[in-house]
Design brief:
Chain B is mainly α. Chain B has 14 helices and two strands. Chain B starts with a helix and ends with a helix. Classes of the chains: A alpha/beta, B mainly alpha, C mainly alpha. Chain B: One of its GO terms (cellular component) is plasma membrane.
Chain lengths: 331, 319, 302
Amino acid sequence: MSSAGDTIAAAHQLSVGFALPGGQRLTAVNNINLEIRRGETLALVGESGCGKSTLGRTLALLQAPTTGTITVGGQSIAAGSRLPQAARRALYENVQMIFQDPVAALNPRQTVGAIVGEPLELFCRGSRAERQQQVVALLEAVGLGHDDLVRYPHQFSGGQRQRIAIARALALQPQLIVADEPVSALDISVQSQILNLFNELKQQHQLTYLFISHDMAVVKTMADRVAVMYLGEIVELGSREQIFAQPAHPYTAALLASVPDISSRKGKFGRILSGDPPSPAQPPTGCAFHPRCGYASERCRSERPQQQLLAGDHRVACHHPLRQADREQPL
Amino acid sequence: MSRFIVGRIAQALLVMVVMSVVIYALIGLMPGDPIDLMISADPNMTSADAALLREIYGLDQPLYRRYLAWLGNAVQGDLGYSRLFGQPVLQVLLPALGNTLILMATAFIIAIAIALPLGTLAAAKPRSAFDYSVNMYAFAGISLPSFWLALLLIMLFSVNLGWLPAGGMAAADASFGEQLRHLALPVATVATLHIGAYSRYMRSAMLEVLRHDYIRTARAKGASERRVIWVHAWRNALIPVVTVLALDFGFLFSGALVTETIFSWPGMGKLIFDAVMGNDFNLAVVALLFATALTLLGNLIADLLYGLLDPRIRAGGGR
Amino acid sequence: MASATTKSPTQLALQRFRGHRLALASAALLALLVTAVICAPLIEWLLGHSANQVDLYNRLAPPSWLHPLGTDELGRDTLLRLLYGGRVSLLTGLVAAVAAATLGTFIGLCAGYFSGRTDTVLMRFTDSVIALPLLPLLIVLAAIDLTKLGLSEQLANAESVSLYRIIVIVALTGWTTVARLVRGATLSLREREFVLAARGLGASHGLIMRRHILPNLLSPIIVAVTLSIGSVILLESVLSFLGLGIQPPLASWGNMLTNAQQLIWEAPQLAIYPGLLIFITVICCNFVGDGLQDAFDPKAES
């Protein structure tokens, strides 16, 4: 399924910054290169504040890049440039987003029919009656029914609301769906239902997901490939097997160690993370992870590591990538 | 914090400058001009005389020229002559300011002295009959037309009972009791209207504070309910209330216009009203500007007080 | 969670409002007042004389079958004058409050939605207007000679001009509360994810504001309008009382009190009725506004 197909979306030397009150600048996404392949689920993981949501929103065209280029479905947009209306519409049509908070994601004053039908309406897909039929089909695809058309969001549970949001994202049959922590606000029992829905829909509609999460357990069940972000940069990128079995970056290892896993010994891959990530407004020198890294050397403090290719397309940005021996030696 | 203060002062000054232009222009739009009034006063005046006078007074100049000339004189301390009173504007203005201060300060203090305890007691027993009555009174207070209340008070205390004078201010050499008798009704009018709003502020500030953990801690330590309310909560609840009150005090200078007019109390409000109605251009401009400046000052003080009293803002260095 | 019946948030709020007895009674009373005022011509017909009919032989008459509330200093029927005055006062209140709220919503929406510099400029402006002494400035605005603004003599002195003028004046000065309210709410709404979702569909700013932000602002705006109808009626009555608002012979509750003040020794009842009606109307508006506030925001403590 996740064979190296063609690229459906990409970020090229992408940076996104925000001005803070008081003249400071915060670089949430720092010079990232990333390709999303057709038909895959690429998981984007990292602690909160690492810039993964910003990257997702930028790819979903909700956030303007500061520098660099994003490409979605063959259409590129560079920072600072303005596309003609038609090209912009094509971009918007190709990528849709699903949000974390299913309460805030739906306009409380719209009926479900209006919410799910809005994309079709904005893109003038068919007549009113045809749109209505499509909306019903979409609702049925996510496990809701015809009766729900005239209901309001407040009449639904969290899981049901997320289904509505998914139906809305599906409406235009986009090539890429960016899902930003789509299950982390839901009850555990509901989480698996929604994750299953994601997988079913992917099969049926040949979708591509950028799946943003901080929950490694969820990532393990969903991802084909995993990108690990730390402080605005992608520090490791590889297939699910590579990341989960052979993490090369100490940060990835630490993230995995924080997942409670009955089958493995505790602390299998390095130490559990301590402390908070530094502020992206004042990133450390050299490798951004060095203040929290057990392997940090003098070089890490001064020199920024470049991405290097390990086996296959497994990439890591670290001066001291973990080898098999490191991983097996509990600290 | 200092940046915050400087910013606020600069903004107030800017508003003052803009308002001086606006007020000057608006007064110019009022019916008639000084020469029209002279014409109506002197039937022998010809239209040629009028044109000459217009030229002498600079009234044939465009508005901005007249404004700049006025501003130039004003900066040098020459605010012009009041047509209505036949005196320099400042000599009319200052006594009026004093009279307003007497009326307003008295009413303000009485209103606070009654409203704050009312609001606190209401918050101490929310949803009690007492709370309910205070709430009803507050609603009545904000819904009563001030001039109607004034008329009712006059009807009751002057017309029917004959206890108090229906208006005017006692002469400066009158006895203190006489002064008070004249003060009573206008003060009662202003105070009655404000007690409602102030008690509502106090009540909600108090309820907000009583929700906090340290109040629960104080109660858990066994502090008496009276101590919790009047020592622990009261002080903190006062912070937002004081800010609102400072804000209101600025408005009081001009807000009593109706009360002053009905009771013929020779204060700022009545002065502004008389100047506007009597086509006293010089006086109207300056009096309005004074009222604006005082109101802005009240706002400024409220802002600064808020920063001073609330340590979170003080530490944060501005909003 | 999904119930069988479908109720919009507004319907739910109305349901809660019905539980608020004081507000409900106030709304009923207001409805009664409005009906009475609308039916004024009918009552005029029943009584057999018109509101402005002067009868100098019958000045300050006590209540009778012909004049249920007596007559005023010109022998005009007090009840009819009150009803026609009520038309003016209520209409001014409603129209001016809605006009002010519309202006305020527009300014607040722009400030909150576009944020940044637009927001700073608009809000500084709003703060400055709030910091002005309202009543004295209103008096100046009300005293302006409209012919100096280029209006023809005939137009400027038309009977209904005083009505329009007061509506404009109130709208020009009364928008600030709503502007602040709307701006604050818009600032938080624009970051809501359903707004982001609409932006992700390439929806225009206008559509997002119209469809996704404004409807969610409706309840606080309705509350603000209800509350401000009361204060507008108060303002109108004050200005009319001072002789600057609605001009006689057009009656308003405010200008009816102007004459009553002079007659306070001979005919105190003339000072009671209009004031009482103003008071009742305003307090009812405030109760209804308060009830709506609770109904729209069930979490808020009353």
